[in-house]
Amino acid sequence: MAARDETAAPLTFERAVEVLRWWRDADVDLPLDEIPHDRFAEFAAQPAPVRPVARRPADAERASEPPIRLEKPAPSRPIAATGVDEAARSAREIAAAANSLDELRAALEKFDGCALKATATRLVFSDGAPQTPIMLIGEAPGGEEDRVGRPFVGRAGQLLDRMLHSIGLDRSQVYIANCVPWRPPGNRTPTPQEAQICLPFIRRQIELSNPRLMVCLGASALSTLLGGRDGISRARGQWRTYESDDGGSIPALPMFHPAYLLRQSSAKRWAWADLRKLSKAIAAGYRPV
Length: 289
Known about the structure:
Layout: H1 13-25, H2 39-45, H3 57-64, H4 83-97, H5 101-110, H6 116-119, E1 127-128, E2 134-138, H7 143-148, H8 155-166, E3 175-178, H9 192-209, E4 213-217, H10 219-225, H11 232-235, E5 240-243, E6 249-255, H12 258-263, H13 268-283
Parallel strand pairs: 2-3, 2-4, 4-6
Antiparallel strand pairs: 1-3, 5-6
């Protein structure tokens, strides 16, 4: 016989109730006693008890409601012209009327068709020297660019300056802009709708600057200006052709955005290879080689 545990707490009424509740929750509903019982005969002699299912008031209310009928949705219809279409149309008209970069900048200052203008601090139009042979185009301004009003002045801009310096260039020898001239909240990527609205302005900016070579920095600039389904990892380092509205064409080189290089330092070797391609094109009279 096992020795009695003298340290065990006495069985109080509360503990007894707790034990009974534990057995009940374990679906033990019959006690054991010293007399054997034929449980099969007992259960065969009487029908099994039916336990009522408790229903919450909300369930009872739902039971009285008519059943929900799921109807097949109507086929989608073509969407009519949206506010994005109207804003893009207005942007095309305003951009086409600008006969100089100064006029284009002034037109952008007055343009209210892009919602990003309401959340940005200021317009970030350009930096560098217009009408130089090389134009670099990024995605959109960041926080520091939004504060200063010039593109590529933050950490990514400092890296861009070092990249240009590595092939003998500085900002006085290039023209720099962004596809979207207002900072998206939180430095997020511009939406396709925002890029569509601003596209006429950057296209007119390219046309008025008239570069001989273009560099598209990052995936957003690549897709906005050059199109295609290739991502920046596959497209970088391969010369493409930018088609302007006046029928002309400009050789364009996609490259990783400097902000991406700050996050992925291993990609800097590919950026260096692309910079060498740009340098060779400059040495060959601004012709891709």
